[in-house]
Amino acid sequence: MHVEDATNTISESDYGTHTLVVYEDLEKLREFYSCYIKKRVEERNELIQLAPFYETDDSVRKSLSKGPTSIDIEKWEKIEKSLMIVDSLKKYSDNDSPESDYSFNKNLVKYAKTNGKAGVSILTDTGAFPYKHRIQELVNYELSLPSKYDIDLKRVCLFHKKDFNRLSEEQKQKLLNHHPIVIKI
Which of 55, 62, 135, 149 has the fewest Cβ atoms within 10 angstroms? Predict the structure, then answer.
């Protein structure tokens, strides 16, 4: 799927959506998150949490501030408080549990609503799990998350193609069946 089509598909989906995106390379990923974030913060007044793995926070900020889908990082991150960039490796520490994740998500939505936002999108790269040799834990973790959230949240699970291909066919099928929207870019 083209990046713009993927962005529109997820953007136009209802809150509660849990999406799986398999991306070919960092160039495609950057194009996707830049387009999605611009659309959601500027047009939809949403809070975005982006948790990259194969990039540093600074390289993400650089990608977001350049090109045709650039945004004013200072404005959206510091002033409007519509953008949070967190390291995926730190976010998914060995202690993380689905319960703590859901509690965090509920609190993040509450925070967003208190600040006049329409809702929250979480874009998170799952690369930390394969990096730490926790592939089965990744599958278990994903399957323990709701297929549909009951809060104003969209969750986008980002898999690098090489990480996704490390899964067994059975694991892949379970993840594909669990996510209502599956997109390859």
Answer: 62
* Amino acid type, 30: R
Task: From 11, 6, 59, 12, select the one nearest 38 (Cα to Cα).
Answer: 11
Query: Which CATH number does 3-184 carry?
Result: 3.40.50.300
Q: Compute the distance between CA of residue 127 and CA of residue 113 in angstroms, rounded to an integer.
A: 30
User: Do strands 120-125 and 18-23 pair parallel, antiparallel, or not at all (unpaired)?
Assistant: unpaired
Q: Which of 53, 37, 54, 62 is nearest to 91 (CA)?
A: 53
DSSP state string for 7-54? HHHHHTSPTTBEEEEEESSHHHHHHHHHHHHHIIIIIS--EEEEE-SS
- pTM: predicted TM-score of the whole model, two decimal places: 0.94
